[in-house]
Amino acid sequence: MAVTVRIPTPLRRLTQNLGEVAAEGADIEGIIENLEANYPGMKERLCDEGGNIRRFVNVYLNDEDIRFLDGKATPVADGAEISIIPAIAGG
Predict the structure, then answer these.
(1) What is the distance between the alpha carbons of residues 72 and 61, in angstroms, rounded to a whole number?
(2) CA of 91: how far to CAs of 55, 85, 86, 88, in Å?
(3) 79 with 3: CB under 8 angstroms?
(4) How far apart are CA 4 and CA 83, in angstroms?
(5) Domain annotation for the chain: domains and CATH numbers
(6) What whole-number distance in Å separates Cα of residue 39 and Cα of residue 41?
(7) Which phi and psi (to 5°) does residue 14 adopt?
(8) d(CA 61, CA 81)
(9) CA triplet 24, 46, 63: central angle to 5 degrees?
(10) Where are the beta strands (DSSP E) in the chain?
């Protein structure tokens, strides 16, 4: 299943400066694995040592935060849009 993944500026050096890339997978975990296969280094920036999405990385599937869905097990339909958004701290 092909989906569009929006890549934030800090990670674009891994995607040859592309702001959007195509990826395949049945769920978010599969998408992350596919991104890693095509853009080495992506997974370590998105996931911690335990394989969980880092708490400062927000992933949205069609404008829905996957933390409020099924996390990495969230199913992904063909043609979906995924946005990776790093959290920003301020004071």
Answers:
(1) 11
(2) 19, 19, 17, 10
(3) yes
(4) 8
(5) 2-86 (3.10.20.30)
(6) 6
(7) -80, -20
(8) 6
(9) 65
(10) 2-6, 20-24, 57-61, 64-65, 81-86
Q: For 13-64, what is each residue's pLDDT tens digit? A: 999 999 999 999 999 999 999 999 999 999 999 999 999 999 999 999 999 9
pTM: 0.92
Hey, is 63 helix, strand or coil?
coil
Cβ neighbours of residue 46 closer than 8 Å, sequence gap 6 or more:
32, 35, 53, 54, 57, 59, 84
Tokens found for residue 57: 């990385």
Q: What's the chain's Rg over C-alpha atoms?
A: 12
